[in-house]
């Protein structure tokens, strides 16, 4: 037998729900579309906050699904912890407009569904695409279990250098899953979509082994560890990362937070504060915005801002990008952060980034991501 969901026609009015600090709940019916939210009086819902743009975001309905679109706002629109431009809205989603939190509700999403069960040999079966996706996910999860059982996690390390003297000051540990013969991008997508304890344990194992391996690598001060967007804000993560300092050979652990997950809302600021309180470094990675965006991070400024590799590529031949990077260096200095030029492939790019004020650099010019021998001669496998 095979079971699937059939959706009936949407008939109920959706709404946004907002709770204030006193616990009062406000329900905002979405009776017309597009439904705009912003600081202007002309918006369908007005928010009197300087952090909210005049026309900040809008909610759309095309007859079959709801969508939310950011209207090029200053402080961004966030859905379920991830900054978005435009995406589908589902019942129960958490929507953040600058620093104001809403939950989206559309009872028709669940209340008007019915379950139909049909024989496996029925002509009306699931598409081959759904079957293929399920098979790939099972393969990825099984391979993940094998990796955990045999502690077979592997990391690659890429150096980060001080542009003033070329000395290696840190390493980024890069996880690149190779599971069950799948392409890395496919495996990564499948595992990130698997919301289960298995995936969390795999992340912990990769980071533990990265810290233990980094302890054997001389001459560096920092170990940079990637965070997934879905992990940002997790209650247990700061303590888990802090525990790695005892096995990292004195290297300071730096949490790399994707720029797409950096948002000016209370839970994110609290997450960064907890990392700092535990002695961890903070880096925002993949940055390709403007100086105003950096200055807006003053209250939750990182130690490092790692630029998108696209900014360094060919920067020695682009006066426009040189001006952009110089402005970013100045903005970062105002909030007490250092810029890391990522994706540096040549000496000309490195020298240009240095002349523009970048303190650190990373890229193939200084060494491609490589694995190290494990176990290290004379060092036992971790227990």
Description:
- GO terms for molecular function: cyclic-guanylate-specific phosphodiesterase activity.
- It contains 10 helices and 21 strands.
- The chain is an alpha/beta fold and 383 residues long.
- The protein folds into 2 domains: 15-105, Tumour Suppressor Smad4, CATH 2.60.200; 144-371, EAL domain (TIM Barrel, Alpha-Beta Barrel), CATH 3.20.20.
- Strand 16 (222-226), helix 5 (237-242) and strand 17 form a beta-alpha-beta unit.
- The relative contact order is 0.10.
Q: Class by helix and strand content? A: alpha/beta
Strand content: 25-35%
CATH class of the largest domain: Alpha Beta
Rg calculated over all Cα atoms: 24 Å
Major β-sheet profile: 8 strands, mixed, barrel
Q: What is the number of helices?
A: 10
Whole-number total of structural domains: 2
- CATH homologous superfamily title of the largest domain: EAL domain
Helix content class: 25-40%
Strand order of the largest sheet: 14-15-16-17-18-19-20-21
The protein's oligomeric status is single chain
Number of strands: 21
GO molecular function: cyclic-guanylate-specific phosphodiesterase activity
Domain FHA: 35-84
Domain EAL: 137-383
InterPro entries: Cyclic-di-GMP_PDE-like, EAL_dom, EAL_sf, FHA_dom, SMAD_FHA_dom_sf
């Amino acid at each position: 037998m095979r079971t699937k969901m059939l959706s009936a026609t949407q008939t109920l009015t959706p709404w946004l729900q907002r709770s204030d600090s006193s616990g009062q709940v406000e329900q905002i019916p979405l009776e017309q579309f597009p439904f705009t939210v912003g600081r202007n009086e002309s918006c369908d819902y007005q928010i009197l906050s300087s952090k909210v743009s005049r026309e900040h975001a809008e909610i759309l309905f095309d007859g079959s699904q709801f969508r939310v679109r950011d209207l090029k706002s200053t402080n961004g629109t966030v859905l379920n912890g991830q900054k978005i431009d435009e995406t589908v809205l589902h019942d129960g989603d958490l929507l953040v407009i600058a620093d104001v939190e809403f939950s989206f509700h559309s009872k028709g999403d669940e209340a008007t569904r019915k379950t139909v069960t049909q024989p496996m040999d029925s002509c009306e079966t699931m598409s081959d695409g759904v079957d293929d996706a399920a098979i790939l996910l099972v393969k990825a999860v099984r391979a993940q279990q094998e990796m955990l059982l045999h502690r077979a996690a592997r990391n690659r390390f890429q150096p980060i250098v001080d542009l003033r003297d070329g000395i290696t000051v840190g390493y980024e540990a890069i996880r690149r899953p190779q599971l069950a013969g799948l392409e890395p991008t496919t495996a990564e997508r499948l595992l990130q979509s698997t919301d289960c304890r298995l995936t969390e344990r795999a992340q912990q194992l990769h980071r533990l082994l990265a810290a233990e391996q980094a302890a054997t690598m001389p001459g560096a001060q920092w170990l940079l560890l990637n965070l997934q967007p879905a992990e940002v804000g997790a209650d247990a993560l700061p303590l888990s990362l802090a525990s790695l300092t005892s096995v990292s050979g004195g290297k300071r652990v730096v949490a790399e937070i994707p720029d797409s997950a950096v948002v000016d809302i209370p839970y994110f600021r609290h997450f960064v504060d907890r990392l700092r309180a535990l002695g961890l470094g903070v880096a925002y990675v993949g940055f390709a915005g403007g100086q105003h965006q950096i200055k807006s991070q003053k209250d939750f400024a990182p130690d490092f801002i790692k630029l998108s590799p696209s900014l360094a590529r060919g920067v020695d031949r682009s006066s426009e990008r040189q001006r952009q990077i110089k402005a970013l260096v100045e903005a970062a200095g105002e909030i007490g952060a250092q810029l890391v030029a990522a994706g540096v492939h040549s000496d000309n790019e490195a020298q240009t980034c240095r002349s523009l004020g970048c303190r650190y650099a990373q890229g193939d010019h200084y060494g491609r991501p490589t694995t190290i021998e494990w176990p290290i001669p004379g060092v036992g496998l971790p227990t």
